[in-house]
């Protein structure tokens, strides 16, 4: 093995993630991506399996420990700011200590996954332009449109020249706000979303508002402020940011922060990572770096415990 202190399978998964979504794509001005917990290897203790999640909560850690996963791919970094200590009193630090004890590593792609072509933001583009964003790997029912990157990455790695943060979609033919809302709720599998429209528009006419351009950003959409588009589509926007947008005649759709991200894991990343990990396992085998005692079979699953902390509660 190249590194006997780390699970060979975990090495393969990390290698696959780095090829799919290089860490150089991440916004290093604030983000913390990469292998955040390199857990000591315990031979025979864990399975060749990985768990995908948006947030690495205590419930997700319990799930991974029960499943005996070797590694967790957590979209949001569980270590975001420098740590001065690791204690049991802090729930996130306690989770890290438990996972290290079990030998489960943690990798976070975060904004690298946002920026890459065919990554998270491009998935959100498909959610507003297609009836079904993924059928056998191909979006179906596309409305004619042009999509562009809002903020290109400077000096991207080879093969990722089109990467960048945020997206702008311009429809060849205007779409109604109601149709876009229907696509979003269907494609993200959500029971409801938050919608803000100019207060001069009667409530009964809101769904008929014509939309020719959309600004898109997964998670927090502050980077969309001031953008010259008809609609802002993001996970969350502050009260005052939303007011500023509708005062300028724009519409806003928010889905709660992590709901703009979670569906991507199951619909896209699951298949991408499975295929890329197979290639990594094959390469490790050719180099003689795959343990002979380990099977080359593996599983990658999306967490069942992971969910947004907020839910919509309707009064009867």
From TrEMBL:
Keywords for the protein's UniProt record, in alphabetical order: Metal-binding
Claim: Secreted is one of the keywords in the record: no
InterPro entries for the chain: DUF34/NIF3, DUF34/NIF3_sf
Residues noted as binding a divalent metal cation in the record, renumbered to the chain: 76, 114, 257, 261
Gene3D superfamilies: NIF3 (NGG1p interacting factor 3)-like (3.40.1390.30)
Pfam families in the record: DUF34_NIF3
GO CC annotation terms, alphabetical: mitochondrion
PANTHER family xref list: NGG1 INTERACTING FACTOR 3, NIF3-LIKE PROTEIN 1
Protein name as annotated: NIF3-like protein
